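Worked example 3 (structure in, sequence out).
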């Protein structure tokens, strides 16, 4: 049986997939960065502040809905 040509092989075996822990760490880091940007944004920039507040809310929602890491970490 011959191996499939490169163009027909699935690339999933070569993906650098994140663990739940790594994904959670990235979400928490993004939340902290977004919070810092929000705090540094001038109150007169209402549109930018609103966009950052929406981003932060979405990140918090994602973090709250994410399944727990089965390793307990």
């Amino acid at each position: 049986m011959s191996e499939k040509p490169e163009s027909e092989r699935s690339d999933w075996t070569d993906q650098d997939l994140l663990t739940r822990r790594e994904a959670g760490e990235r979400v928490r880091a993004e939340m902290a960065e977004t919070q810092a940007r929000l705090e540094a944004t001038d109150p007169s920039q209402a549109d930018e502040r609103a966009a950052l507040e929406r981003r932060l809310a979405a990140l918090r929602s994602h973090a709250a809905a994410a399944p727990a890491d089965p390793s307990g970490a």
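Notes: Residues 19-65 form one domain. Residues 24 and 63 are 7 Å apart (CA to CA).
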